[in-house]
Amino acid sequence: MEMRPADLREPDSDLVAQQADTAADRQAMVAQADSASMLEQQRQRRYLAKALLRSPTFMTGLLIVLFWIFMAVFSTFITQSPFDVDAAVSLQAPSATHWFGTDDLGRDVLARTMAGARTVLIIAPLATFLALLWGGIIGLVSGFYRGMTDEIIMRLVDVLLALPVIITSILILSLLGKSLAIVIIVIGALFTPVVSRTIRAAVIGEREREYVMAARLRGERSAFVMAREILPNITQPIIVEGTIRLGYAVFTAATLSFLGFGLVPPSPDWGLTIATERIFLQIAPWTVLFPAAALATLVVGVNLITDGLSRVFSK
Amino acid sequence: MTDDQYRRDYAHHLIERVRTGQMTRRQLLVRASVFGFSLSAAGSMLAACGGDSTSTTPSASASGAPAPVMGGTLSVVIPPSLTDLDPVTIYDQGGIVLISQFCEYLIDLDNTNGLKPKLAVSWSANTDASVWTFKLRQGVKFTDGSPFEAADVVASIDRLVDPKSGSAALAALAGILSPGGTKAVDPATVEFTLDKPFADFPFLVCASSYNTVMLPRTYKGDWVNNPVGTGPWMLKEYKAKQKCTAVKNPTYWGKDASGNQLPYLDQVNWVLVQDESAANLQLQSGAIDLQQQTVFQGSQALFADPNLRVDIYPGSGIREVAFNVTKDPWKKKEVRQAVAYCLDRPAINKALYDGRSNLGFDTFWEPTVFPGNPTPPPRAQDYDMAKKLLADAGYADGLEFTLTFSKYLENPQYAQLIQAQCKPAGITVKLDQLSYEAYYAGDNDVTPWLNAAMTITEWGSRPTPGVYAQAMLLPTSTWSASHWDNKDFNTTFDQYMSTPDEAARTPLATKLSQIQQDDTPILLAFYITQLRTQKKNVFGVQGPGNFYCDLSMAFKTV
Q: Does A265 contact B301 at a Cβ distance shorter than 8 Å?
């Protein structure tokens, strides 16, 4: 077999050494740049953490939410059972024995109010996570590709945004049933369009930046660019959007329970309790006021966190 | 023996039983009304008994009532009807309340669930209560101008007993009266030939059998657009789920004891409100004069309102907790009994009705509600007994089942009480709460309320144990959620219903009560006392505080 001249040529040792030096330098430069970037990120994180810790708004909200998370997990060890029925003490006003009074079946309202946080703190964060996941994917794809893809997706999102959340939820839950999982999925799905719009807007702002250009020039795949380059740089609007949605999810979950499309008795869920006990509002207002106040504090707490985050990020 | 001789002998027999202490005075009134004795004749019988005549319960709202005031408008709040307003097919409170204002029954119910003449002036039975003859009121006209005659009764009843009618009346009349069983003897006389003897038959065509209103023989349906009846009111306007307005029927046949033309009022406005709290607030604000039926739960504030009067009636409404005996684990009576022994009935009564209702012990033959019936052995909460019964049935390690109910009235609270009270016996109750519409959706062979394994169903008052049993405890019952078929009970029930004589009935009632309680196809933890709320200037509302009420003698003072 005849051999071609190029295959027989000896490599130029000087050139090889020069290339090796260049590659090593490049790697060193990249490592240096990465290190600087990490340091910068760490410095930013420390700054953010300090700023958040110094933010009264954020800290107040965080304490409220942490209180309810603690109660959701540990209230059964602190209070009476939220399910213990005692007809002999039904609708009793707050007293030393029952700090928040008793409901129509003689159950301790304090125990039920504290335990009521459990369901809402399962439904709302999971629904928000699903909304961020689905909305994130849609927003990234739409904002990154633009053009016809963006047009089609955003027009579909417009259609979905036109659907009223509560009414659509009721329709879907009526069709599919009322399990906890379905409630989470429905709320997550209905919040997805709003989240996708926010993330799309953030992606559009990032896609023309140099680091994205550089990644594309490097020949990185689109999925890599979206997931590893753009996504880390839009975490701030995602976090803010997530906390906003969390507040709405708490309220939506409670509303669905209130309307009878969430959990069923004897769950101490706040929305359900407000719905079932509201007929006693005139003679035993404590049966409604405490779970309503609990719901309000959680929503306010989440909103304060959102507010604190927005202010710190905007600085 | 002629009918008159038989009635005289029967009257003498009733008087003797009261004198010898074998029957209460109220029971005499009830049995006398069943066999068509007039109120004055029943009063004479009571007088013949001697003793204190005050044991009969006077009308709650009649006591201390001022002289009637003519004219004016009454505002009434009721729930909206869930179905089209058709006399043949209505089954819920909203529909029943409205239809019974425009159309009338052969027999009325007084405030204590006793019978009193309405479109029929008298009624009597043959000796085994298998053929009943009703004499009709003369001079009555429908609002379309046609006269009310026996042919209208035949058409109305035949329409209801047609299996294709879809009428709730079939629940009471199926197996008792078939199409063709009603005959017009003459324009003023109707004869009912029953499929089997039924001593309580007048109760099946009275105001507690809600669909048995009299309609013209020419009635073709679409009642809202062609409203017709013999009642004191004429439909002026009906907007489904919003409001209904009625004006007085100028040709109404009714007159009061002083000869005044009824109704007293010029107009009645019904406001249709589903939400009980909203209805109560309207009452308290003064926008509404009368709440025809008040649900205790959530209405406690009404008792303390100085502008309102809450009348209490000895109702017999129930919340039927049915075990579907065709499904596990309810095939074994020990399991059913075990659940019955878990219930703390006084605590349930306290929680749901502030102790106002009467306790029940899983039988319809309950003397506190239906006087004169045998006293059943009380069933107190007994967890040891419940655990033993569960072990006997093979559930020593505990039991789990699902209880299905609608989100309506106090059903959710009752379900939670059952759940909580079963837990100490090792019984786990899963609650399946449905909307009212979902609970009653579908035909009888698929609807949850008749086919789920265990259910809670609300029943309005029924005037006798027999009417209840006929509707839900027999294999022929249209509304049997338990699907119970006890041969001994069925045979004894037939004997009971073909025995008009009280002395012979008592041991049969005792046996029926024992069988029902022992086999426990349904739980009856209480009989609900009925409430009706009105402003303190509203008087004369008649009826036993359940779905049915008569506003022809209602009036408002200034």
A: no
- Distance (Å, whole) CA B494 – CA B363: 17
Q: Residues B495, B509: contact at Cβ < 8 Å?
A: no
End-to-end CA distance of chain A: 71
Question: Is A10 contained in some domain?
Answer: no
Total domains in the fold of chain A: 1
Longest dimension (CA), chain B: 71
- Give the number of residues written for chain B: 558
Select the CATH number that applies to the domain covering B233-249+256-311+531-556 from these four: 2.60.40.10, 3.40.50.880, 3.40.50.300, 3.40.190.10: 3.40.190.10
For B335-389, what is the HEC assignment? HHHHHHHHCCHHHHHHHHHCCCCEECCCCCCCCCCCCCCCCCCCCCCCHHHHHHH
Q: Out of A84, A90, A260, whose CB is closest to B351? A: A90
From the candidate CATH numbers 3.30.420.40, 3.40.1280.10, 3.30.70.20, 3.90.76.10, the one assigned to the domain spanning B104-224: 3.90.76.10
Kindly determine whether residue B277 and residue A264, on different chains, have CB atoms separated by under 8 Å. no
- Please give the Cα distance from B546 to B531 (Å, whole number): 8
Return the ∠ at Cα B201 (arms to B195 and B203), rounded to 5°: 145
Q: Do B350 and A90 touch (CB under 8 A)?
A: yes
Q: Residue A84 domain-assigned?
A: yes
- Chain B residues touching residue A103 (CB < 8 angstroms): none
Could you report the per-residue pLDDT of B375-401, keeping only the tens digit for each?
999 999 999 999 999 999 999 999 999
- What per-residue confidence (pLDDT) applies to B111? 74
Of the candidates B17, B542, B463, which has an alpha carbon nearest to the alpha carbon of residue B200?
B463
Q: Is the CB of A90 inside 8 Å of chain B's CB atoms?
A: yes
Q: A235-258 vs A165-176: helix axis angle to the nearest 10?
A: 60
In terms of C-beta density within 10 A (0-12 exposed, 13-18 middle, 19 or more buried), how is residue B256 classed? Answer: middle
**The predicted structure's pLDDT at residue B62:** 45
* Amino acid B349: pLDDT: 94
Classify B237 as helix, strand or coil.
Answer: strand
The answer to whether the Cβ–Cβ distance between A87 and B417 falls below 8 Å is yes
Contacts of A88 in chain B (CB under 8 A): 347, 350
* Reduced 3-state DSSP string for B125-179: ECCCCCEEEEEECCCCECCCCCECCHHHHHHHHHHHHCHHHCCCCHHHHCCCCCC
Asked whether the beta carbons of residue B300 and residue A90 sit closer than 8 angstroms, the reply is: no
Q: What is the pTM of this model?
A: 0.79
Burial class (CB in 10 A: 0-12, 13-18, 19+), B317: buried
Torsion of CA A76, A82, A87, A89, to 10 degrees: 70
Q: Which residues of chain B have pLDDT under 70?
A: 1-64, 545
Closest residue on chain A to B412 (Cα): A265
Residues of A in contact with B422 (CB under 8 A): none
**Structure tokens of B363?**
């039988």
User: Using CA atoms, how far apart are residues B207 and B114, in angstroms rounded to an integer?
Assistant: 10
One-letter amino acid for residue B96 of the chain:
I
From the list B347, B348, B412, the residue facing A276 with the nearest CB is B412
To the nearest whole Å, the CA of A87 is away from the closest chain B CA by 5
pLDDT, position B43: 59
Residue limits of CATH 3.90.76.10 in chain B = 104-224
**What are the mean pLDDT values of chain A's consecutive 10-residue runs (315 residues total)?**
45 61 68 72 84 92 96 91 89 94 94 94 95 96 93 94 89 84 93 95 91 88 91 91 94 90 87 92 94 96 93 82
Q: How many residues does chain A have?
A: 315
CA distance A241 to chain B (A): 35
Return the H-helix or E-strand segment holding B269: strand B267-272
